[in-house]
Amino acid sequence: MGLDDLVNKAKDLLGGAEAKTQEATSDAQAVNTEAAAGASEEASGLTDKAKGLLSDDKIDQIAGAIKDKTPDQVDSIVDTVAAKGKELND
Question: What is the predicted pLDDT for the residue at 84?
Fold first, then answer.
């Protein structure tokens, strides 16, 4: 085996390593995309659950309870926050 054969063999090995690196990079990007999609679905599920727990009626009940325990000066602020909560709940 001559020097040229060794050089060619080294080039082949490096070329194979480069192909494997590119393949691994592609696989990692695919996994990240799948993980991001899973996280997005989970967040969407939590948002839907929160919306279910905070119906407009529930927001009104909470606002009423806050108004009962706070001075009358706070009522308009509570109403504004409740209205915003209902808007976000849509």
Answer: 87
